[in-house]
Structures are given as C-alpha cells and as structure tokens.
Amino acid sequence: MKIHVFSEEKAAVLAADRYVELLKRKPNAVLGFATGSTPLQLYRELIRRYKLGELSFNQATSFNLDEYVGLDGSSPQSYRYFMNKNLFEQIDIPLERTFVPCGKNCSEKSTVEYDAKIQVSGGIDIQLLGVGRNGHIGFNEPGTSFDSLTHRVQLSRSTREANARFFRSLDEVPFEAVSMGIKTVMNARSILLFAQGEEKAEVIQKAIYGPVTEEVPASILQLHPFVELFLDPEAAKLL
Ligand code: F6R
User: Fold this and answer.
1) Is the beta carbon of 135 within 6 A of some atom in ligand 1?
2) For residues 99 and 71, what is the distance between their CA atoms, to the nearest angstrom?
3) Which pLDDT score, from 0 to 100, does residue 23 have?
C-alpha cells in the first residue's frame, strides 16, 4: 500500500494525474467510481482537467460501487443522480457507458449481470473508494464475505445515520442497497482509496495495520498489489 498524506485539494490533483496517465495510455479504460462526500474534490478536479483539455472520457466506461434499493435515477438521493450531477454531465463520458447497480425495478439477475458486464468490459482499471467509519467499502458492511460479488445488502444503522444528511430524515434512508462485492472490488487492477477527517482516523489505522478480517472490510486492501491511499492529516493522525 502506498500512503500519501496531503490536503484534500493536493490529493485530488495527484489522483487526477493517475486518470490523465491512464486515459492517455488507454483511452477506453474502465473506471470504478464512488459516491458520498469523499470523492467530490477529485470529481471537481477531473472536470477542471477535462475542461483544460488534459483528458477525455469519450471512450471510457464506468461502473459505480453501489445504489440504494428502491431509488432510481430520477430520485435526487440516488447514486445515479449524484453521479450524473457531480461528474457525468460535466465531462464527455457517454452516459450509456456509465453503469450504476440497479436499485429499482430490477431483474433478478441484475446483480450477476453487473459483474458480468464488468468482466466483458475488460475489468476495472482504477477503482475509487471511500471508506465508512465502520470499515465498509462500497456498501459491504462488516461481516461481508471477502468472496462476495455484486449483491443486495442490508445497511447498518451507523451507515444509515452517516448518510441521513443526504435525506430529509433518517426515516427516509433506505434499509438496503446493491453493492459491488468485495471480490469485485479486489479484482480491479488498481485501487485509490480516499479518506478525510478525524472520524475516519480509527478505521484507517485498523485497515492498514490491523488484522485482515471480514469485520473490517477495508482491511482486505492490504492484500491488493496496487493500492494507493490518499489521506488528509486528520484521517492519518493515528498512523
Ligand atoms: C459510496 C460508498 C461508500 C462511501 C463511504 C464513505 O459509493 O460506496 O463506501 O465511500 O460510506 O462515505 P463519505 O464519503 O460520504 O464519507
């Protein structure tokens, strides 16, 4: 694991360089994206670089980590909506090549098909991750099998509480989501994990130095050959 400790702004600039390099070398790269607060600065930086003409996504394909069960793209709280607003509508990626797990009116096979689509696309080149305070990656809560593929998950109370800020009240936060599995994430050729703020410090310490255990899903990243962590000084303060 390579660990970088920088301000959020500097981390976004450095991580955006990875995308510029990748898309120059492989214009049809496959990108794994995340939602939540963590990646917003990176998305702003990718948009800025795109507008400067430093990179184009017009041959790229993307797969998002997760989606809430019961929400479709017309709902402002859905992750599809989040991605369209915060990234896709501001760059040149063809929307039909941006994939987010199905949250509403899904076929029974939609989770299996999601993994199949990733494989057919050639596999994910860069998977972006945030981390939950309980160690979740994607919405793989503690206890999820390291062998999991895309699947339906029950959200823990702490995750629902952490995400309630995007809804009018806690009651409105869905109880379930569809998430790429841990194996799906680990199959990515490289992984960039971002964490900011003191509230992530404990889980970052456990993920990096603790035992590799399903109780801390992010700890599996110790076994991936190409992981870079971009931490701000608060998230890194227990290292
Ligand atoms: C989001 C995701 C989650 C978040 C995590 C951190 O697609 O899969 O694992 O990365 O919950 O959320 P924030 O960034 O809001 O602190």
Assistant:
1) no
2) 15
3) 98
Residue 73: give its domain's CATH number: 3.40.50.1360
- Amino acid 37: pLDDT: 96
Please report whether residue 162 resides in a domain: yes
What confidence score (pLDDT) does residue 30 get? 98
pLDDT of residue 158: 93
Using a 6 Å cutoff on CB, does residue 130 contact ligand 1?
A: yes
Q: Is residue 126 part of a domain?
A: yes
Domain housing 168 = 2-210+226-236
| Cβ atoms of residues 187 and 150 within 8 Å | no
pTM of the shown model: 0.98
* Atom 15 in ligand 1: residue holding the nearest Cα: 36
Q: Is 101 in the pocket of ligand 1 (CB under 6 A)?
A: no
Ligand 1, atom 11: closest residue by C-alpha: 132
Ranges under pLDDT 50 in the chain: none
Distance 58 CA to ligand 1 centre (A): 26
Task: Report, as residue numbers or ranges, the catalytic residues.
Answer: 66, 134, 136, 141
Whether 160 is in a domain gets the answer yes
The predicted structure's pLDDT at residue 45 = 98
Instruction: Assess whether the C-beta atom of 32 lies below 6 angstroms from ligand 1.
Output: no
pLDDT for the residue numbered 50: 98
Count of domains for the chain? 1
Residue 217 in domain: no
